[in-house]
Amino acid sequence: MPSPYINDQAARAKTAALLGRLLADSYIIYVKTQGFHWNVVGPQFEPLHTLFQDQYTELAQAIDEIAERIRALGVKAPGSFAEFQTLTSIGEEADAPAADAMISQLLSDHTTASRTALQVVTEAGTQGDVATADLATQRVTQHEKTAWMLSSLLQRSK
Question: Residues in domain Ferritin/DPS (predicted)?
């Protein structure tokens, strides 16, 4: 028997709103990571240039999946910078900071996005929405893995 969630538009809208925030967080991180990819300089240029490209490429796929899940819930997906800016708690970066500052910002941003994704997991689980919970769980995993990798870059060998 299908979950009553299927026909509960208010519950679906609540879950979609949290997904919208995750979408906004992800999009802002995507734009920031791509900008850092273009503008990183210094002795870490080559590995960071490649790492940032890998990260924004992964985010591009995730952004599409999140937006499509919002649509599957019957809600319009946010799709403009204005909407993303009102939904996210992640700040943009207009400058090209030093490489370590880039890494630190992205570490903080991925930690924030992981928390946002965890809120989606919790709400979707409460509503019996296993598809959204699964998608958000994958995002928690990816953001935590990325944060761990970025954190490792900032650690000094002893």
Answer: 17-156
- Write the pLDDT tens digit of every residue in 69-119: 999 999 999 999 999 999 999 999 988 999 999 999 999 999 999 999 999
Count CB atoms within 10 A of the CB of residue 82.
9
Global confidence as pTM: 0.92
Q: Do residues 93 and 32 make contact, with C-beta atoms less than 8 angstroms apart?
A: yes
Cα–Cα distance for residue pair 21/88, rounded to 1 Å: 6
Residues 22-31: tens digit of each pLDDT: 999 999 999 9
C-alpha Rg value of the chain to the nearest Å: 17
CA distance linking residue 117 with residue 20, whole number of Å? 10
